[in-house]
Amino acid sequence: MARRQGSHSDITGPRVRAAALRLFARHGYAAVSMRQIAGEVGLGAGALYLYTPDKQTLLFSLMHDHMQELLEKLPAAAPDQDPRARLEAFARFHIRFHLDRPDLVFIAYMELRNLTPENFAVIEAMRRRYEARLEEILCAGELAGEFRIRDVKLTTMALIAMLTGVNTWFREGGRLDREGVEAIYRDLVLKAVGAE
Amino acid sequence: MARRQGSHSDITGPRVRAAALRLFARHGYAAVSMRQIAGEVGLGAGALYLYTPDKQTLLFSLMHDHMQELLEKLPAAAPDQDPRARLEAFARFHIRFHLDRPDLVFIAYMELRNLTPENFAVIEAMRRRYEARLEEILCAGELAGEFRIRDVKLTTMALIAMLTGVNTWFREGGRLDREGVEAIYRDLVLKAVGAE
DNA sequence: CTTGGAACTGAACACCTGTTCAGATAGCCT
DNA sequence: AGGCTATCTGAACAGGTGTTCAGTTCCAAG
């Protein structure tokens, strides 16, 4: 056997990535074999190498695309705008973006240690760029006298940790819906920076 | 060759656990082999099985002992005490405990998915017991009118995520010392629940 | 209807995996 | 001095790992 009916590179490629993502998130990069990924898509193991040069690149590519999308979709910095409104927008964006991509968020955090040092450096730099955007908002609010923050850097990390944590417990169809969650987190964030 | 000079079960045992902990935290459970662990301690692979029935139990044992210590050392619930003081004590305890055991905290969170379902259930139950302690404090403060909390359950999860996040960025000898970190986190927590 | 090549298979490679166990050794007790 | 046993080795087992590649099949264009 070889090429199968109706198969196309531009269909199989995304399917491979989706399967890898699912399995990496479920069981961890190191615990998932190329044969398992291939099996999920209905391929032999060898066919995967038409879509990725190797397993490491497959992981890196998933993480890199995710971080890129995160940075692109983040509302542009608007230094003239009200810091409080900017902080609210950031919190809302973060929660929505993360709730929509639980698997990607999960591996982008959990699988950092399975990246080669070079790949790790790339992802880490992107993460810092994202954090810097929040830090800038907190700085602006502090300077404008709208926030009362004891330590901007620490508060940045604390807020991101708090917001990202939403993925560890939120389940669709539970007690709260997305809007409810967004509102409560916005509330927590505003209070934590002394804006309420 | 066989038994070596000065070797004792009660010395080698802890050394095996320490090596496993270090390596699991560094590279992940699935990515670490029994031979690597044994090598770290200067043993052949077979000798490990004098100290653990298998690899899975080694991981579970590390996580279980960690969670047990967490629950034991957590200041006892004191429902008559001031909720604000109890919350401060909880935050301080959490930060200190976590800063003192970064590797254990790390694997207790990261390696949950590498536990068998039965082992996972045990650890998860312990984690919930810990979270319930914070939830109880928040409830008490809300009822006493000391806190203003929109959703106790969500706030519990958010605060724990925020506090646990300290391990992702804190490095000894950095800009802030432990006391400084504790103080700022206490501040953030109190503000988030509307106690300031 | 032929042909070019994209899409894929499956065997093979060299090596690693967790775990078992017969055998070897070193220190303690008598 | 002799023996006992806790401690450990290293080979062996059955199977899995990422990756390569010669060969096969099917589709589409000429």
Describe this structure in words.
Two copies of one chain form a homodimer. By secondary structure, chain A is mostly helical. The first copy, chain A, has two domains: 44 residues, Homeodomain-like (Arc Repressor Mutant, subunit A, Orthogonal Bundle), CATH 1.10.10; 136 residues, Tetracycline Repressor, domain 2 (Orthogonal Bundle), CATH 1.10.357. In chain A, 67% of the residues lie in helices and 0% in strands. Chain A has nine helices and no strands. In chain A, helix 3 packs parallel to helix 6. Chain A starts with 8 loop residues before the first helix and ends with a helix. In chain A, 31% of the residues are buried. At the A-B interface, helix 7, helix 8 and helix 9 of A face helix 7, helix 8 and helix 9 of B. Chain A binds a DNA duplex (30 and 30 nucleotides) through loops. Chains A, B: This is TetR family transcriptional regulator. Chains A, B: Keywords: DNA-binding. Chains A, B: GO terms for molecular function: DNA-binding transcription factor activity; transcription cis-regulatory region binding.
